[in-house]
Structure formats: C-alpha cells, structure tokens
Amino acid sequence: MYNLWPYQYPFLPEMMNFWAFVVFVLGACIGSFLNVCIWRIPRDESIFSPPSRCPACGHWIRCYENIPLLSWIFLRGKCSQCGVRISFRYFFVELLTGVLFLLVWLKIIFEQQPLVLAVIYFAVTMLVVTTIFIDIEHRIIPDETTYPVMLTGLVIPLIFPEVWGRHSRLDAFLFSFAGFFVALIFSLAFSLIGKRIFRREALGLGDVKFLAAIGACFGLPGFIFILFIGSLLGSVGGIIKSLIRKKKLRRLTIPFGPYLAFAAYLWMLYGQSLAKWYLEFIHHAANLLKNV
Ligand SMILES: [Zn+2]
What we know:
Layout: H1 16-40, H2 70-74, H3 88-110, H4 117-138, H5 143-159, H6 169-198, H7 205-245, H8 257-291
The structure holds zinc ion.
C-alpha cells in the first residue's frame, strides 16, 4: 500500500480524508473571499477595506458572522441586525469553491501528480468562479482576476520545475511561457481581426487576458483544448439562446468567459485523458483509412 504513494506526499494515506477536508474548508474560505471580489471588483471598490457591511442597515459583519457556509445557515440567510435577506449566492459561491477545490485536489492525489500542481489548479479555480459570476452579470473579466493567475502560472515552474515533470527550471518555465506567449498573440490577433470583420467585439480584451493566463498555467496543449471546447460550448449556448429569445444570433451578445471557464475546469479534471483518447481515435481512424 505504501509503495503506491510517492515520497513527495508529506502525509500518510490514512490522513487522506483529513487533508481532503482541509482542502474543502480552504476552498470555502477562499469562496468567501471570492464573494467580496465578485461584488466589489466590477464596482471599482477595494477588496481589502472597509470590512463587509450589511447593504441595508450598514451593520458591520462580525467575525463569527463571517464563517464560510456555517454563518449563512445559522443566520438563516438574514442580517442579524435588520433581518434583510442575504442572497443565496454567497452560500452557493462558498460551497461551489469548496467542492471545486476538493475535486481538483482528489484528481491530483489519485493520479499521483506533483502536489505543487495544486497551487496552479487552485489559482485557476478561483479565476473560473469569478469569471462565471462577474462576466455573466457585468460582461467583463477584470485584470485583478487574470493577472495574478498569469503570474502564478509563470512563476511556479521557475521555483518548482517538477510541476511539469522537468528537472531544469528553464525547461519548465519555457513550457509555461510558450503557452502564455502563443495564447496571447493568437487571441489578440483573433480579437483585432474579429473586430474588423464582424464590426463588433468578437473576443474582448478580458477574454484575451483570460486565455493568456490559461496558456501560462497549462501550456500549449491546455490552451488549444480550452479554446476549442470553449468555442464549441459557446456556439451551442449561443444557438440555444437565440432559439429561446427568437433573435438572430448576430444580434445577441454572448459572454464567452463562462464557457472558457467551464472548459478550463474540464481540462484540469479530464484534459489529459480526453487528449489521449482523441489522439488514439485519430490513430485508429488513420489505420482504418490505410486498410480501405
Ligand atoms: Zn442589516
């Protein structure tokens, strides 16, 4: 049993449930912070001060009223002072972030990937959650959410080259940098050309920075997968929306961010296996054609 666990795991297999719980709680706490980001960043307010207040009566939220998940349940979704309803979204974002953190953590553990990959996966998960909620409501992907993830993707391989299974820091960094660079240039070019052809923003600068951050975090294979799957899902979503609203597709504005975000999360969970399956499929198809 012990042989299954590489030396890099600093804990015993019996502790797995404990660490999974820690990761879920960490995710819920981060989700609580993301709630602040989702509300304040699009409104150009500081995310660090002042502390949160009830929007109705101005009551300062005390420490014990700010415990992720639990406070919302114990206060039954109401302000303790004036009783005004607190949106279910606060609870939902905390729960969602906790679950999404837990799933990528378990994937790393079960596939015995380098533990430091969790830093990159957690950073991208934060970007995924904020992008879904901010882009749907405000149609932007703020720099405050993309730049830190970009930086994480570029810096981690410099310190821990084993994150990409390399021994050399330069090797590992180049893997990330190539993804970042190609993603940036390609999506920037697409954005500028798209604006000329469609005479409106096809790919906003927020989307470009999102894709550059993805390139930095997952390298070229991840960028290609996410761009492809994100575009596919976005087109299907757009067609469904135009059928429901009975409007022409060209006249609808469809936020691309949430689709890219969904694809990015899919890549973390299933990217490698999907890419492998696809390559094998192509291989078999080529063999079949040869035999015809
Ligand atoms: Zn209140």
